[in-house]
Write a structure and sequence with these properties.
Number of helices: 14
Strand content: 15-25%
Pfam families: DUF4085 (PF13315)
Oligomer: single chain
Structural class: alpha+beta
Order of helices and strands: HHHHHHEEEEEEHHEEEEEEEHHHHHH
Protein name: DUF4085 domain-containing protein
Mean pLDDT: 92
Largest sheet: 6 strands, antiparallel, barrel
Organism: Metabacillus rhizolycopersici
Low-confidence stretches: none
Helix content: 25-40%
Number of strands: 13
Length: 399
């Protein structure tokens, strides 16, 4: 029924237990680098092989096992034809799993067309590496709250709702702290079926329900400016929030829309429950029950979310005046520098002369080589670079 299975995931992982250098040239560079850095590469390789030796002997095709036993599978001494065969085996496993993911994605896209817009918007971005923060059940419903911190979504909190559940199956019960890894979604006669592989602990989970819906929330734009500052004051953070937005307090064990922000601790009132600071700790009182939310009041910073998206990098898209672009693009001010390059990137025909002058003055280093390559190739697609500019940066432009 499912393209995506634990067996397919394991086959992919098995093929990547022990990566190796892909050519004689790569081995030469690795050996030279190790010598320059004073690293005993052979001892390091031996240790890496020994760490996964037992697993390798269980999953490798028979033709590779002798090279595990003699310790050469991940060494320069491995015969070239064996190395190429081993790399082909790895690539075949990768291609097989990529085909599985592609088929799963195609099924998901077909099913999403029948689901509410919030669900479609949630799955526009991957939930890979989202962490289960809360699980709430009733006899026929399930709500899973996912925290996407460290994941691949601009949405910080995602709530998935399953109503009128027909089937729920898993090798292990779902639990808070598990990581959402891969998924597949299909339309069924009864409604929709979602199949997910979770990690820590690893399990396959399938649920079929009549309907799936979703909510999502974002971190306020100001969050990143304050999160790393241990000395900040919560009131100063709140003053940076957009007064026109609606905010919600979401913790692993409590959720309530924030009714108002105030000038005195705890600096906010809730639609549901009441906040209380006791012995420095933050608590919520709901229906006579006291729930601890945080070790200190300032930790509220991590629990304030909004349903309005604010681009945290919006300032980098603000255009730089034409008469300032050249100097700013080559300045030491990183934010202004990025803004200048983005201004040129968005308007290549408008700034032809400036772009060529900047690139002629640009000193390409190891630190900025990738950035320079992206911009040069972008400008070259518009055919606006002079022969002199292309000649100077021929190694980056492919000319």
């Amino acid at each position: 029924m499912w393209n995506l299975t634990m067996q397919a995931k394991k086959a992919f992982e098995h093929a990547n237990i022990l990566p190796i250098q892909e050519s004689d040239h790569d081995w030469k560079i690795a050996l030279e680098d190790a010598k320059e850095e004073g690293v005993d590469l052979y001892s390091q390789l031996k240790e890496e092989l020994n760490e996964c030796k037992e697993r390798l002997l269980q999953i490798l095709p028979e033709r590779f096992k002798q090279y595990v036993h003699d310790g050469t599978l991940n060494s320069p001494e491995l015969p070239k034809q064996v190395r190429e065969d081993y790399l082909l085996w790895i690539r075949a496993a990768e291609e097989t799993f990529e085909a599985v993911l592609d088929a799963s994605f195609e099924n998901k896209q077909k099913a999403l067309a029948f689901l509410p817009e919030p669900v479609q918007e949630v799955y526009e971005q991957s939930l890979h590496d989202a962490e289960i923060e809360r699980i709430e059940r009733s006899p026929s419903t399930l709500k899973i709250t996912l925290n996407t911190l460290g994941g691949f979504s601009t949405k910080s909190i995602v709530e998935l709702f399953f109503t009128d559940i027909f089937i729920e199956e898993s090798h292990l019960p779902l639990q808070v702290g598990q990581w959402y890894i891969y998924d597949e979604l299909i339309k069924t006669e009864n409604g929709f079926a979602l199949h997910v592989i979770f990690d820590c602990p690893e399990t396959e989970w399938t649920i079929e329900a009549k309907q799936i819906n979703a909510n999502y929330y974002y971190r306020p734009k100001a969050y990143d400016d304050f999160a790393e500052d241990k000395e900040f004051e919560l009131q100063a953070y709140i003053e940076k929030l957009n007064p026109d937005f609606t905010y919600t307090s979401i913790t692993p064990n409590f959720k309530s829309e924030i009714k108002t922000f105030t000038n005195e601790a705890p600096y906010m009132t809730l639609q549901e429950g009441e906040l209380l600071v006791e012995s420095g700790e933050l608590h919520a009182i709901l229906a006579g029950k006291q729930i601890k939310l945080a070790d200190c009041l300032n930790d509220c910073l991590h629990f304030i979310f909004t349903d309005e998206y604010e681009d945290p990098y919006a300032q980098f898209s603000e255009p730089v005046p034409a008469d300032e672009i050249e100097e700013v693009a080559l300045s030491e001010d990183l934010e202004l520098q990025v803004r200048a390059w983005n201004t040129m990137y968005a308007n290549p025909h408008e700034f032809v002369d400036i772009i060529n002058r900047v690139l002629m003055r640009l000193n390409v280093t190891e630190d900025n080589e990738m950035m320079a390559s992206v911009y040069i190739n972008h400008f070259n697609e518009y055919r606006i670079l002079t022969e002199e500019t292309l000649s100077k940066h021929c190694n980056l432009s492919g000319k």
